[in-house]
Design goal:
Elements: E1 3-4, E2 9-10, E3 15-16, E4 21-22, E5 27-28, E6 33-34, E7 39-40, E8 45-46, E9 50-52, E10 57-58, E11 63-66, E12 79-82, E13 87-88, E14 93-95, E15 104-107, E16 112-113, E17 118-119, E18 124-125, E19 130-131, E20 136-137, E21 142-143, E22 148-149, E23 154-155, E24 160-161, E25 166-167, E26 172-173, E27 181-184, E28 189-193, H1 195-200, H2 205-219, H3 225-236, H4 243-250
Parallel strand pairs: 1-4, 2-5, 3-6, 4-7, 5-8, 6-9, 7-10, 8-11, 9-12, 10-13, 11-14, 12-15, 13-16, 14-17, 15-18, 16-19, 17-20, 18-21, 19-22, 20-23, 21-24, 22-25, 23-26, 25-27
Antiparallel strand pairs: 27-28
Helix pairs in contact: 2-3, 3-4
Length: 258
């Protein structure tokens, strides 16, 4: 049975699954949906046109789906879509999309957004990512699966962060971070591969070694980007783990950190 605290305000058009929990003084806006098993803490704002899936936990004082901090926004009915099994901690802010882009901010499944982290308009977050405290995304950013953002990381608008990448605490990311790469500094520069993270995710020793060789091809051989990309693509023919890296390098963006 849905449990809504007596002090909470839930719009009549909101759709809540049967076992959703809504805490004290929380506000749930119009045309929202909240899936089974999701728990919303106290003093949370779930803004209009927000969809939240199953088994999420949203902690106190979070703001989810509010209108974007974008001067171009003129009241368009844009949205926020959040998947299943996410943890959204205290004071996290997630903003809806804009009509100038996809019109929706998207967060996948199994992500951890720790206290005070921010996801701006039109961002696309994959699955299994970790945002440490105060990690901040500007608009239109893409974060691929299992990426880790350290505390106080800042990511420039339109940047991409590849799968299993690691952004060290305090990094200021101004260009795309390829899969498996660790970056640090302001501006962020490559510092090796996320080997420990890959081991924890079950990558084999052979795959990790191949990823390290690809990193050296990309960053240590002094090759032009096109030549490095071709050499890594040739290796990917026998190492499937490199497919994510080759696909990322073939996709236009802001240019990779070098």
């Amino acid at each position: 049975m849905t449990r809504v605290h007596s002090t909470a305000i839930v719009a009549a058009s909101a759709e809540l699954a049967d076992d959703v929990v809504i805490g004290p003084y929380t506000v749930v806006g119009a045309d929202t949906t909240i899936g089974a098993g999701t728990s919303i803490g106290a003093h949370v704002v779930i803004a209009d046109r927000t969809s939240i899936g199953r088994d999420n936990r949203v902690f106190q004082f979070a703001s989810v789906g509010e209108i974007p901090q974008d001067r171009k926004y003129t009241g368009d009915p844009t949205r926020t879509v959040i998947g299943d099994g996410n943890v959204i901690r205290e004071f996290v802010t997630i903003h809806a999309g804009t009509a100038q882009d996809r019109g929706v901010t998207t967060i996948g499944d199994g992500n951890w957004l720790l206290a005070y982290s921010h996801v701006a308009h039109d961002c696309v977050i994959g699955n299994g990512t970790t945002f440490s405290n105060n990690a901040q995304l500007a608009g239109h950013v893409i974060i691929d699966d299992y990426a880790v953002l350290g505390g106080f990381v800042g990511v420039h608008q339109f940047c991409r962060v590849g799968t299993h990448a690691m952004l060290a605490a305090g990094s200021i990311v101004l260009q795309d971070v390829p899969p498996y790469v660790t970056v640090a500094g302001s501006p962020a520069t490559p510092r090796g591969t996320n080997s420990e993270g890959l081991r924890r995710r079950g990558f084999s020793a052979d795959d990790i070694a191949a990823i390290k060789r690809a990193y050296k091809t990309l960053y240590r051989k002094g090759l032009a980007l096109d030549d490095a990309r071709a050499e890594i693509a040739a290796s990917a023919a026998t190492v499937p783990a490199l497919h994510a890296l080759t696909a990322f390098l073939e996709t236009p963006g802001r240019g990779i950190v070098r």
